[in-house]
Amino acid sequence: MLLNDLIKDLDIIDIKGSVEINIDDINYDSRKLKENSLFICIKGFSLNGHKFISNAIEKGSVAFLVEEDIYIKGYTFIKVEDTRKAMAKIASNFYNNPTKKLNLIGVTGTNGKTTITHLIKEVLEYNNQKTGLIGTIKNVIGNEEIASSRTTPESVELQGYFREMLDKNINDCAMEVSSHSLELKRVDECEFKFGIFTNLTEEHLDFHTDLDEYRRAKEKLFHKTTRGNIINLDDDGGKKIYESIKNLKTPIITYAIEAEADIMAKDIKIYSSGIEYKLITPKYQMNIKTPIPGRFSVYNSLAVIALCYLMDIPKETIAESLQNTNGVSGRFESIDTEEGFSVIIDYAHTPDALENVLKTAKEFVKGNIITVFGCGGDRDKTKRPLMGKISQQYSDYTIITSDNPRTEIPGDIVKDILIGVDTNSSNYEVILDRKEAIHNAVDKAEDGDVVIIAGKGHENYQIIGKDKIHFDDKEVVKEILGKE
Ligand SMILES: CC(=O)N[C@H]1[C@@H](OP(=O)(O)OP(=O)(O)OC[C@H]2O[C@@H](n3ccc(=O)[nH]c3=O)[C@H](O)[C@@H]2O)O[C@H](CO)[C@@H](O)[C@@H]1O[C@H](C)C(=O)N[C@@H](C)C(=O)N[C@H](CCC(=O)O)C(=O)O
Ligand SMILES: Nc1ncnc2c1ncn2[C@@H]1O[C@H](COP(=O)(O)OP(=O)(O)OP(=O)(O)O)[C@@H](O)[C@H]1O
Ligand SMILES: N[C@H](CCC[C@H](N)C(=O)O)C(=O)O
Ligand SMILES: [Mg+2]
Q: Which residue intervals define the domain Mur ligase C-terminal in the entry (predicted)?
């Protein structure tokens, strides 16, 4: 593509060199650049991308998008105020603005995004609509599965995935939209048709200064949508977002269990094997059953139903698909133990998620709840004591262990968790080695007990220091039970 076309509609401060040159690829990481490429220089949180220009030249870059005054003869330099913002525009131009044509459904909120996007994909495909998926576990384009390293990719990867979807006749896409991605302009040029809000609770307060700012980041999604916004009215953050968007032209559909909303669940029954409720919508009522347990499952299914309602998906299709789902990997996933106790792997890594999961287990446990959990390093520290308190409050026994310590010392993370724990009680212990912790929990379990292993869900790695080693909670449990 001609560089001149690529930079169309950008706010440019200065151009040095020719823009009548061909650009075959674009990237923001010098390590991934190809011949004839444009290198987008980003001033990051730890490194300055402008420092890698000579590496980029070695790789074959011919043009540079910069924020600093740099010029090297024989190359083209385009200066803008904000390269991250410009990158989103360039990425969309490079792939011929795919989201103009795609039915892009964005899901945001602290918890439930992965679950909801997977369920949306299932329902739409049940309705014979090929659907792409972007999110924490994986990105899916037809038969192709691309591993995710983040919940929401950078704009360059994102726009490339959308283009590939359209080229494969995939016209719908369910996508997780993290607050980081909204704040760091990864989704700036995405034309979302629908936006779904799940809930807002304590998380990522290392990145966002406070809960209000965290909410405002998420709120941006609902100002970008063109066909509909779907809001959880039982959630305080949801109520505030509703107030801020109620005068926009985009239709809003609300859902709730307690508040008055368009889409509601009544007569809710929660079992160890799933949930059942009576669905009430402005046009129809029907019974909904789904094999994912927990009150939070009612909310997740209501969000999916509200979207399908707006998209005019037949109600029978919605009900059948939700009833036949296999659930989502590492989300309240029960491991078949053939013992008298059960083991559940769950991705709860926030106080709210942990509380929900433990409350759900409490509703059906016959014996004790034994919980294994830790907190991620280099992430929000404020959630640590809260999770310690919640685990002790709802479990009969807690084993505090390591999650992904990253560059922090595991024992220091545990110290933060212990601030919320009554350390005079004997209903907890600390075992830093996660495998040993899981082993002890399973050994302790007796008939009727439930072992909850929280925090890592689908993850098949542990990040210790800068190393990513193989580690899979599910595999460890199966090994202990002699199933592998
Ligand atoms: C806080 C955050 O989001 N950081 C992102 C940010 O990193 P950064 O600004 O610190 O980048 P940097 O390391 O300083 O490097 C600056 C620039 O130099 C470039 N570089 C660097 C080295 C080199 O040799 N050559 C080179 O060109 C880098 O590619 C980058 O463009 O920009 C990078 C490149 O665009 C991202 O990869 C990186 O995400 C990191 C991996 C991350 O962990 N992000 C997490 C916190 C995140 O985004 N999480 C959300 C929410 C999770 C959820 O709740 O679901 C998510 O969407 O996943
Ligand atoms: N609607 C919900 N409300 C509260 N907790 C939930 C809800 N849905 C799921 N959870 C809990 O949160 C955990 C994470 O769920 P899920 O992966 O769907 O969320 P997410 O928003 O994608 O998280 P992430 O931001 O890490 O990508 C689940 O394992 C479960 O414990
Ligand atoms: N999307 C979340 C995932 C956290 C998962 C948990 N296992 C951890 O590593 O803290 C994050 O990047 O903060
Ligand atoms: Mg997710």
A: 330-457
